Fold:
Amino acid sequence: MHDYLQVTVGAVLVYNFVLSRFLGICPFLGVSKRIDTALGMSGAVIFVMTLASMATAAVFHLVLSKPVEIAGLGTIKLEFLQILLFILIIAALVQLVEIMLQKFSPPLYNALGIYLPLITTNCAVLGVATINAQATYSVWLSTINGFFSGVGFAVALVLFASLRERLEMAKVPKPFEGMAIALITAGILAMAFMGFSGLC
Amino acid sequence: MGTALIALVLLAVTGAALGVIIGLAGKFFAVKTDPRIEQVTEMLPGANCGGCGRAGCADFAKALCAGEAAPAACPASSPEAVEQIAAFLGISAGGGEKKVAVVLCGGDKTHAGQAAHYNGVSDCVSASLIGGGAKGCTFGCLGLASCVRACPFNAIELVNGLAIVHNEICTGCGNCVDKCPRKLIKLVPKTSEVHVYCSSPEKGPTKKKVCSAACIGCRKCAKNAEEGQVEMQGFLARVNYNNPPSAGLVEATGCPTGCLRTPEEHYRQETATQEVA
Structure:
């Protein structure tokens, strides 16, 4: 139980992907201009992170974590292939899911469709897979970590989008207009999230 | 060497296997859609302005292919593009007059003063929530560019604190109409040559106090125009857009405050006052 609490709260607040680990910054800045696009992106990120964590953790435990015996070459640890394999698997998985979504659930496809290809090879998605592997979480715990990392991303993105929607109307000094004030806002938001450090 | 070989083989095999799976899935789960939808979407302007009443150009293309809409319902397409789509789908283009938006106010910074200094959020809706806005005239353009931001075609320009629609760019999608908290923006036929640039229903002297470019209700234009071309609505002259007068009316009338103008003259004069200001 303690484990689960640590993973969930840790993923959402303490080790927030965007604001503490600084992964997935490009969608964070790219789709945070309006709340509805931020919500769509968040949904897609949660979806992909959960699936990717599950698939990569399964592959990690089945293939990568054990030394493999190959005839004529002796035993080899395949761990060094981790990043390459994870990218392949995540990209293929998302592509597959996209095709199936289009067939079986058009409404969900319409909601997530344009965001799915955007985040397939995003660093946050690969990041959660490597973090799971590093911490040697079980497949179940990895899935949970993936889901809540996605939720953490969503929280950060939606908070930031609502701030930016208000900034649009505010009188910003000329030199800070546009991306500059967005980055300053992101920095302040990250500092606010530092308050959670040490929670678990 | 052995490790490199294994890495190479393993990744090649995984990649190939995943590729085959995706390829099969693509075949197996293929969704049959009307191939014309994509082509029609490409013919549409792609501005997703919503002027046709659909959720965007792709949605409109879907409705077109399903026969639920006529190509002319797209306000942003040129007549040639509409014809092209109609010919492509083998349906009639559908009728409809080209419309443009017009901001019926001539009270720029030079002619209409502020009653108070507004320092809040730079948005007309926000400003109008605080005591109805800071402008002296409670019916005039607030000049905080809500409509400018709403326009997907960048057809509205803020000149000297007054929103002006560029007719040649405006497609008549109507996105700006609802944005104006003072309801100054009207969709009018593109062929109309004269407008009364005032929307205040107040009495002439009252208007005069807050704006020197207001319609004072002198009826000169109504007398000079043909029957029914200009109507008096209380103390405000209004062009009847079902029977619009020609540009010659401006000269025939000699409007004492100059609020009866052609759109070209309106833009020319406002840019001139901006330079002076």
Chain B touches chain A through 21 residues (CB under 8 Å). Residues 35-89 of chain B form a domain with the 3-methyladenine DNA Glycosylase II; Chain A, domain 3 fold (CATH 1.10.15.40).
